[in-house]
Design brief:
CATH topology: Eukaryotic RPB6 RNA polymerase subunit
Strand order of the largest sheet: 1-3-4-2
CATH architecture: Alpha-Beta Complex
CATH class: Alpha Beta
Radius of gyration: 27 Å
Distance between the termini: 70 Å
Helix content: 10-25%
Number of strands: 4
Order of helices and strands: EHEEEH
Shape: elongated
Oligomer: single chain
Largest sheet: 4 strands, mixed
């Protein structure tokens, strides 16, 4: 599957405004939002909307959108290397005080603890009452 290159005019009416933030402004935004840099949504460095702005990996981008319901609002994205390149999902420490994301090394792996074995000498019981027991109680 090949990836087509789409040329987007940065000043098109349907493309929201994208601004690159300075390091100081990025720190202020992260503190104001109360999040770590790795908790932000990502945007690829080769995204057509920011390709012309020459964004560096690790920078924050402010995307300003307009809505009839709430007016103008801003969202923030973290610039990562292009998604086709190795290491694109790993965040880079661009802003001081940011922590690495939690380890995902166990993601999708089964537990290594052995399951508890049922004692074969005891009868298998169920918490649910059998239909016969329920009918017998209702008749009385």
């Amino acid at each position: 599957m090949s990836r087509e290159t789409v040329e987007v005019e940065p000043n098109h009416a349907l493309v929201p405004k994208h601004e690159l933030l300075s390091k100081e402004e990025s720190e202020r935004v992260l503190k104001e939002l109360g999040v770590k840099i790795w908790q932000l949504p990502r945007i690829a460095q080769d995204d057509p909307a920011i390709r012309f702005k020459e964004a560096e990996v690790g920078q924050l981008v402010r995307i300003t959108r307009r809505s009839d319901l709430v007016g103008e609002y801003a969202i923030y994205r973290y610039v990562v290397s292009p998604f086709g390149q190795k290491g694109s999902a790993e965040p880079v420490r661009a802003v001081s005080g940011s922590k690495e994301p939690p380890s995902e090394s166990r993601k999708g792996k089964r537990s290594t603890k052995p399951k508890k074995q049922r004692d074969a000498t005891k009868p298998k019981t169920s918490r649910r009452k059998s239909r016969k027991t329920v009918d017998a109680v209702n008749k009385e």
